[in-house]
Amino acid sequence: MRIKLSALWATLMFCYIYGDYFGLYVPGKLKGILAGDGPLGPVSQNTLVATSILLAVPGIMVFLSLVLPPKFVRWLNIILAAFYIVIMVLTMPGAWSFYLLLGALEIAIGLLTIWYAWTWPKRTLA
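Below the sequence we write its predicted structure tokens.
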């Protein structure tokens, strides 16, 4: 189960990376970045730290899913996957098709993460 959860977080990270990369090709995006427009409003140290934390957590979950105590990692996976599903749903309206596709995949990955964590066999949670 740990390997499945870890792999789902790694897969989610790939979708994030591709979404951000392809987003650079959207006309006007680079111009906005150069003008100081960031993912959470005007670029500042605080917005970049917040964005960094938001994007670092799934990467860290690749490792934490393998090493934390089973009961704790089970709930952490459920809570964080649900949180990232909400983030995805909030950022999808009005997005380009590639982002909607990756967003749908990210939501599916989040739902799988919740499913696997929720159905973690009781005998291995001890």
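Helices lie at 2-23, 29-34, 45-67, 70-91, 97-118.
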